[in-house]
Amino acid sequence: MDVNIRIAGEAGQGLLTTGDLLVGAFSSMGLHTFASKSYMSRIRGGLNWFDIRIADSELFAPRERADLLVALSEPAIEILSQTLTDDAMVLVDGEEAQEAAPPEAMAVDLTAAAKDAGGKPMMANTVAAGIVFALLGYDADSLDAYVRKQFARMGEELAGQNAACARKGAELAGDRAGRIQAPRPADAPAFVTDGASAAGLSAAVAGVKFATAYPMTPSTATFQYLAKVADKYGIVVEQAEDEIAAINMGCGATYAGAPAMTTTSGGGFALMTEGLSLAGILELPVVILLAQRPGPATGLPTRTAQQDFRFAQFAGHGEFPRAIYAPGTQKQTYELVRKALADAHQAQTPTIVLTDQFLQDAQKNIEPLGDEPDPIDRHIATDAGADYRRYAVTKSGVSPRAIPGGEAFVRCDSDEHTEEGIISEDLAGHLAQQDKRMRKADVLAETVLEPELYPADAADAETLLVCWGSTYGPCREAVDVLREQGGSAAMLHIAQLVPLPAEPIARHLKNRMRVVCVEGNCTGQLAAWLSESGLIGECETVLRYDGLCFTAEYILERID
Amino acid sequence: MDVNIRIAGEAGQGLLTTGDLLVGAFSSMGLHTFASKSYMSRIRGGLNWFDIRIADSELFAPRERADLLVALSEPAIEILSQTLTDDAMVLVDGEEAQEAAPPEAMAVDLTAAAKDAGGKPMMANTVAAGIVFALLGYDADSLDAYVRKQFARMGEELAGQNAACARKGAELAGDRAGRIQAPRPADAPAFVTDGASAAGLSAAVAGVKFATAYPMTPSTATFQYLAKVADKYGIVVEQAEDEIAAINMGCGATYAGAPAMTTTSGGGFALMTEGLSLAGILELPVVILLAQRPGPATGLPTRTAQQDFRFAQFAGHGEFPRAIYAPGTQKQTYELVRKALADAHQAQTPTIVLTDQFLQDAQKNIEPLGDEPDPIDRHIATDAGADYRRYAVTKSGVSPRAIPGGEAFVRCDSDEHTEEGIISEDLAGHLAQQDKRMRKADVLAETVLEPELYPADAADAETLLVCWGSTYGPCREAVDVLREQGGSAAMLHIAQLVPLPAEPIARHLKNRMRVVCVEGNCTGQLAAWLSESGLIGECETVLRYDGLCFTAEYILERID
Amino acid sequence: MSVIQTIAKADSHPSWCPGCGNFPILKAVNETLDAAGIDRRKLVLVSGIGQAAKLPFFVDKPANLFDGLHGRAMPAATGIKLTNHTLTVLVTSGDGDMYGEGGNHLLHAMRRNIGVKAFVHNNQVYGLTKGQASPTSEMGFETKAQPHGVMSLPMNPLAMAICEDCSFVARTFSGDAEHMKRMMRAALDTDGFALLDILQPCVSFNRVNTFKWYKDRVRPIGDDHDPADRDAALKLAFTWGDEIPIGIYYCSERPSFESKLDVLKDRPLVEL
Amino acid sequence: MSVIQTIAKADSHPSWCPGCGNFPILKAVNETLDAAGIDRRKLVLVSGIGQAAKLPFFVDKPANLFDGLHGRAMPAATGIKLTNHTLTVLVTSGDGDMYGEGGNHLLHAMRRNIGVKAFVHNNQVYGLTKGQASPTSEMGFETKAQPHGVMSLPMNPLAMAICEDCSFVARTFSGDAEHMKRMMRAALDTDGFALLDILQPCVSFNRVNTFKWYKDRVRPIGDDHDPADRDAALKLAFTWGDEIPIGIYYCSERPSFESKLDVLKDRPLVEL
Ligand SMILES: Cc1ncc(C[n+]2csc(CCOP(=O)(O)OP(=O)(O)O)c2C)c(N)n1
Ligand SMILES: Cc1ncc(C[n+]2csc(CCOP(=O)(O)OP(=O)(O)O)c2C)c(N)n1
Ligand code: SF4
Ligand code: SF4
Ligand SMILES: [Mg+2]
Ligand SMILES: [Mg+2]
Chain B window 409-428: which residues touch C at a Cβ cutoff of 8 Å? Predict the structure, then answer.
């Protein structure tokens, strides 16, 4: 039992305010909530929407059709009224929107209502929330309480006005109250996060001390999250003049001993590839959060995609080991940013976390993520002396890591070098260093994350949907539907793509009647990687690359 | 029957002058010649060498051991005397070198000899050439004639002095004359070229009008070749402030209608990947010559490698079609730079030619390459009018290409765009454009270059060495040796890697007892690509990544 | 099931915020091109990525356009100009684009003195990415990426241009249409590289350097200023605060890059 | 069969050409570090790629060093300094590295005024890649890549630095050891960012700006020059030709970037 609420209008109309309010309020009631954003690359105008799904059991993805459309502009009505379920309700604000609305739509002048209730015009958002609450049959008290708490720090007066507006909304719903059959509050946690914040929080908690980036959608939210919490965690957050500077600053910072992260999207990542190679030869634990969006080039800046995995896999000239992670949920984003930092420090090599616009922006209420500092091990050798050799050849390939400022002299060089880190053209030495560096791929492999089979006991499900990254949720929900319908289906989600956990994947792929790779790109990048790794031959795919995220419906339609 | 002459010493000692003189003289006599360079990343000092192989039949590769070492420095003796055949001769110049030389070495003061002969000190090189000629038993007259012709443009006096020095050298050989058994002159052509020049000449002939680059070894030689012939062919050659500027200038130039090329090596290519993606979405026929050297990062700037194929394959964010070529010989470099330009213009998408330090520098005498302008078809639609749509959706994916300045307005945009080239966030339009762009992969596939089986009739050879790029020569010679020894071996050389000529490769791979990929990297990049393409499973490899080029010996030692 | 793909209708042009300083700039560009009698078929509008960089899409009459990568308008424009120097090549882009990501290209374009004209919409902020500091943001400017305010000195692009002996260096203000048009025209009439910095309020993200803020400060440069006088020009370039000079700071008689290339003497490269 | 891999023996250090201006620079660096009493364990030498950029490998006493990518010494140095501001971070690199590929970073390092010192070995040529023009090569300078001579105006890094209010801007000459050491010391003693341009003959590829050429032209700046006087400093920066001023052009009292960050007040980032 779930309801999907779509709030739509122009950029600048305050959709996010209404949306955030509702997400918070629903979550505070114990409802399971999943919210996602769809917006255009502009500051005003256009057509944006904010989807909020609520349910009495855990949600993992958005769905395509909405049960309630709150439309604040004409195009919002025109375009999105084709995306509703059969008995959906429509709430419109504004004259233009009203004209375009179907006759049965509920039309309100939200701003007038806010003023009516003694509030300010911008509290129209709270009125809208009040109406939505009532339409769903929820008690106005819960919203009132949440609103008061939320606006408390702005002073009692404002909080009171907002609460009045919320109640005004409930009132306006009139006899439509409860018209939409809504899930009952369950015991879902009140803590809400999106992928971008989960990534930022994870980095802060894991001890990132140096964060630098050049703004680029959809990665900026993580960078700005770090800026916001910088004082609390003691982080230097600096906007770089360009992405090249960002990654090279990161190389400098990790050399000097601070865990460092940089955030970017495809175009910025492209500019970082030379620096990635630098981190490879200098053996620096640089971590890149690559939040994907559709390319090529500028492409669709505010949309979602999973197109840059293979680019990330081979990015940078020359050969060096790396790890690539692709978390599926907000929680896993938190876990894997930490793992990316830990692995990078353990193996002394760069690692990359792939997210995307959908995951960056998607909000969900989950068990609170730890926010106490809990730094990863930097693996710093504190006993290094004057005879220290930064690139000592070892069995594992990992050399003792000292940082400058102590007894040891720390020398590193982007040319091939001796064990001491001094430029050298000795080819035997080069072979020793190259082999040493490549051996670290095994170090990364030792702690590789197992793919997740869902349901965990579906070892003999006939159809296996294989996916990575943010496709987790939609795939999982598709599997639920298939199984409810009596199908024999499961999902295999691969959250660490490099090194590939080949053995467990092979095990999970064995004896399946049907394997389908579900990916947000048009070439089947995971499918190709599995094929290269000898794990599958030609393989069925469900690909989406229109810029929107997957949904269970989208997948189900294509695998029947 | 072949002889390998190794001229070694410090940077700045004029090795190249001696080497070039000998290569020219041998070639002018009809000998088959193959010369390659090994040098350090410095301007003076160190240890460089220049290998010249001569034979009475065509040569394709260097060999590891030398029959004659001309050593101009102490390390040249010490290090390289371990690289000689059993009855090799050694010629040393300079006091230091003399002391380190084996007793049976021939020691000469070349500079004194030059002065003796009435020449200048720098003509010591010509004296050395004279000695080498004599040791090989070749007639001093041929060298004399070649030297006179070569130095003619510097005036009769200098030419005469050089000729005298050459004769002086012959005289100094004394009774050692003819001591080395040398091949008889055959009917090899006098035209000598290296890969770098062949690439440059091809570009000039094919009508490249705009060349821009930022200097980077080993690509610079091609760029400087273009600068040299710029006036003759009417080319604007401009050094860019960085590689990012280079590729973006190339995008601008191709948009405006000029065939354009940029040359770089791995690190510079990394900086170009964002621009590559731009060429992908703008559908511009930008061509990159990527001359490989060992990485990561600065790596070994003057050495050779084949490490950047997969990086090139996936470089650039988002998904778009491209073609990648990897010529095996100087002649094929000439052919494939042209093909890269032609294909790029036909499919309106970027293409990449992979060479490497070995191929860039390797000289060989071959049938003269055409130097008359013979421009490729730019596929420009001259009849485009006011209603022109740059990105018209067509069946092939290729849209009519107009250039600005005529009746048609030419609009292009790095964001996703309408058929008119106007920024658009319409997702249906995006799908249409993305599908259109990707269809061009088929256009590229239509003209894909077949791999070469050597020998051509070796369809049932048991062992197949599979290689790409400059490994052609060493592999081919290894196959010759195996077959001479009664083995059943062949080579499959894949000179176009993307799109992969899968069908013919599959045909050639069928029923082989043994398939070995021979590559200049440590991860087996072609092997992985063949595996991804479903053409082979796990496969044997012979990899070399010490910075030196392959030789037949190296391969043979590893496949027994 | 309906897939929400057709949102073309919502894709209104221009996509700027109401009240944005880009509107008057657009109008001035349209009018200047008309006044200068520039054949739009011989015009290429080049830009990078950003709010300002969308200008080429919004001009009133069709023209050729090349919207490249963020920060890379100058090299693309250089490639276009060298390939066909009979074209008028006009770059319109933002301060982040031209002074931040593209800083190196601007510097070296000035050295070359390529015959491209650049109009930089200087709103002292990153508009399209929602309000981070740009290279010209003032110290103390607070944003979500700079919660403690900008700590770096704003860049001085005009001083830099004067030092590199740029052919034409001027500043104007989007709030003064006539001045803007005069400056744009003068830039277009320049032979070599022309840099025109346009002060432009961003109503959504720059609450400090507002229309009024600029309006209160801009002061046209007096007739007594000699644009050939480098020292005087630099003095103007260092004037920023209570007073901001607008007008032509500096002119230099350097020949354009393309005029020096023998290979372009007879005809443009594209015809060779 | 012998594989030719062990050429370590031939890998002599320093790997510069005999007579190169880098040798006296190296000597001056060694002596200045000694004179300043800098604990080499608290020193990080940072550079990019090029002949000049090899200096860190050749210093007489061991130090920490970071030899990064071509053109990217400044951002790496910035990352190092911000991570541990108790370290002395000294960049030594070439004109191509710092003014060409790295131009944007230099510009923005000045804006930040990060407490890094940069010594730019300005030989007006690309040495390591065998003689192409650099951003400071003079017009008409002929090379294999510029057979018709350089057509762009040489960049004026000192003027640019003065315009961006760089804390310390000076020029010296590798042929004047005492002067060099004085300038190096003054740079090291600067709190914010210091730019020291060092004129350096390249005997292999620059046959125009030779030792004699520089020697005949360099002229120490008189005591009457006030480095706080921007206009006077700019005048010096535009003096190039028969006379080239060496000495401190400009000084500014801006606080360093790192001194403004609250989070660094108590201890360096690396200890947090
Ligand atoms: C390589 C790259 N990095 C970052 C971005 C994201 N980006 C787009 S526009 C922009 C800044 C725009 O600022 P400005 O140039 O001042 O233009 P404005 O929007 O203010 O007019 C940024 C950082 C990008 N598109 N490409
Ligand atoms: C990204 C990249 N581009 C190009 C190169 C090649 N490269 C190495 S050093 C150099 C120029 C060196 O010139 P400069 O900085 O002036 O130093 P110099 O050798 O003259 O001391 C270049 C172009 C490189 N290593 N990396
Ligand atoms: S964000 Fe600022 S610059 Fe962009 S359109 Fe809006 S007001 Fe103009
Ligand atoms: S090439 Fe020039 S800069 Fe490099 S070491 Fe030789 S003389 Fe010095
Ligand atoms: Mg701006
Ligand atoms: Mg230099």
Answer: 409-415, 421-428
